[in-house]
């Protein structure tokens, strides 16, 4: 049974957690890289630490792990 | 628990979103709406709609349990309180939560769970009869629907303040999205979104304390800078300033914090407010139901990092354009002078460290927090309305399908009433304090009734009902006594309720809770002793001493909820010493 979404469903709640954070990582990571390597950092405090890039990377790794770990597999629905 | 005040007012628009921020926000809306449609197929029976099928694991129920209280209203209000009162605001996250959450899991959950009740008013009906259930259900339904409106209005005001968005657009977009996903998936939708919101809040807000502590040069330097900026060491000590009302910025003493907040308000909120208890009732077995609050408590202990630390950091690092220290002020002064208000501290810190993309993530976290607050309230409203009011007094013998339909319709109607109350607040924002205070009228006496009902076999139906009524009426009376009349009268009233002429308004809430709980307990005990007790056979599954508590199935130390509760409690005690 997929955790949290109901008997007979195949997408777990943790899959949604993964897919959402992965999507955010995929948006932030390239944008952070663009800011860093093109020198277009936003005028925020400590922008020299490139927070958008690193935070995007962290979300990407976290999201990718959860998405893969809880991805729907064939036969998930039959396990009820 | 609700902060007495959160009344952001637009002075100037703080920032604007870029296209990348909008992508992040829209992604969130797309995911939550998809979830609503996705889980609708598994939300056909009343148990599925109102209790998420009772199939949640301890982790999901625990995260949802703590997340239901992690709305944006609380986040922004307590960050502002940390700026205003210093680290004392942490008490609302530690002593004002952890012991009560552990008590719920270890002591009270077995009774809620094995009685198979669907709600807290439902438990009161089993234990004390229809009178206590009716009083509790009506007050709870009213409060939840108003609080949903408060969340809606607060979100609209925050969006206007931070981004310059139109109030009506924010209200209707938020209301429609929440109505759709709760109507489709019931509690299951609400719980899934609360778990997502918990992750989002951390993803959106954790950078503030991380970058802030780097900028301040670490915790020790931060404390020194705060002491220099405010001219006092009082802002960074949890307990050492609580000897007397005069010694701390909050105007409270340790009696109010320990007994008013820690023993009554906290236990009342975390163990009897159905909004949070409903999440734990969705657990798939007794052990998960006991573990969920314990896990929730562990996560709760970490929340001050993203709420209190930003408020403290603002005392050190927030500067005006000319380099001088920025001073935040109460909302009414901000309105007159054009300065920033206390409640704006979190958005100000977000803007300080987060550029395009990260700003969108932070704003999305705030929006998710507000919408989750609406969803939590409206799903709890729909359950109590359908089971404890409609099903109990209007239509007792309808089919299960009919009650599910009623649950969906009451969600939509509840949201419409919330929209209406949000518009009323928009035109008379001064009543917001009163709406938020309403919860405090019922929570402390309700805890007295429930705890006596669970632990004392002799408590009778008449005792439970009259105790609850007396406690509630006394709380309202004390509130009116301290909040009406001339300023001189208010000060005198406050000094009587809080037992000190040096008490400040924050202390009133603590001591009022303490007195109303005591009145509830005393009346319940006296009336119970004068009335006929219920036969013990009727109390099986409801009261300690008359119930054989079933084994929770734990086979090793690692599986025992009490073991993990002991670890969480030890960490909690250590934190008190570290920040003493």
Can you put this structure into words, describing what you see?
The complex is a heterodimer of chains A (80) and B (580). Chain A is an all-alpha fold and 80 residues long. Chain A has one domain. In chain A, 56% of the residues lie in helices and 0% in strands. In chain A, α1 (13-38) runs antiparallel to α2. The radius of gyration of chain A is 17 Å and the shape is elongated. The N and C termini of chain A lie close together (5 Å). The mean pLDDT of chain A is 87. Chain B has one domain: Sodium/glucose cotransporter, CATH 1.20.1730. Chain B has 23 helices and no strands. In chain B, α8 packs across α17 (358-394) and α20 runs antiparallel to α21 (487-497). Chains A and B meet through α1 and α2 of A and α1, α8, α9 and α16 of B.
**Second rung of CATH, namely the architecture of chain B:** Up-down Bundle
Largest interface: A-B, 35 and 40 residues
Q: Give the class of chain B from helix and strand content and strand pairing.
A: mainly alpha
Helix content of chain B: over 70%
Which CATH first-tier class of chain B would you pick?
Mainly Alpha
Here the CATH topology of chain B equals Sodium/glucose cotransporter
Topology record:
The complex is a heterodimer of chains A (80) and B (580).
Chain A: H1 13-38, H2 51-69
Helix pairs in contact in A: 1-2
Chain B: H1 19-39, H2 46-51, H3 58-67, H4 72-85, H5 98-114, H6 120-128, H7 130-163, H8 167-205, H9 207-216, H10 219-230, H11 254-272, H12 274-281, H13 286-302, H14 304-317, H15 331-337, H16 345-353, H17 358-394, H18 400-427, H19 432-455, H20 461-483, H21 487-497, H22 505-530, H23 561-578
Helix pairs in contact in B: 1-8, 1-17, 3-8, 3-12, 3-13, 4-14, 5-11, 5-13, 5-23, 6-7, 7-8, 7-17, 7-18, 7-19, 7-20, 8-17, 8-18, 9-14, 10-14, 11-19, 11-22, 12-17, 13-23, 17-18, 19-20, 19-22, 20-21, 20-22
Give the key terms.
heterodimer; A: 80 residues; 0% strand; elongated; B: 580 residues; Sodium/glucose cotransporter; 23 helices
